[in-house]
Specification:
Length: 119
């Protein structure tokens, strides 16, 4: 069973930074690719970034790569997403996800954490 628990969301002012964390088990951390998605009100869930068990990173777009940074902490079995220069359009529920590296589709999801950016 894969369990993912996000934390770090909240209400922040535009221009600030935020760090989201996704805690999981050692097995998931060591064997799975972990990723971050977000879903804004009225929009479809969109992919932000992922990092494989061996550190290979993928970002949805080059522009996201500039403000979003994905990382993994082996000491705490967490996958983190740092968001810089937050904008009101970053308001969304942010989800952590996991998949085996041999698969394409993410099939395990956390409950999500709300990020609200005020202007």
């Amino acid at each position: 069973q894969v369990h993912l628990a996000e934390s770090g969301g909240g209400l922040v002012q535009a221009g600030n930074s935020l760090r989201l964390s996704c805690a999981t088990s050692a097995r998931t951390f060591n064997d799975y690719t972990m990723g971050w998605f977000r879903q804004a009100p009225g929009k479809e869930r969109e992919f932000i970034a992922s990092m494989s068990w061996n550190g290979l990173t993928t970002y949805a777009t080059e522009s996201m790569k500039g403000r979003f940074t994905i990382s993994r902490d082996a000491s705490t079995y967490t996958c983190n997403l740092e968001i810089g220069n937050l904008k009101p359009e970053d308001t969304a529920v942010y989800y952590c996800a996991a998949r085996l590296s041999t698969l394409i589709k993410f099939n395990y999801w956390g409950q999500g954490t709300q990020v609200t950016v005020s202007s």
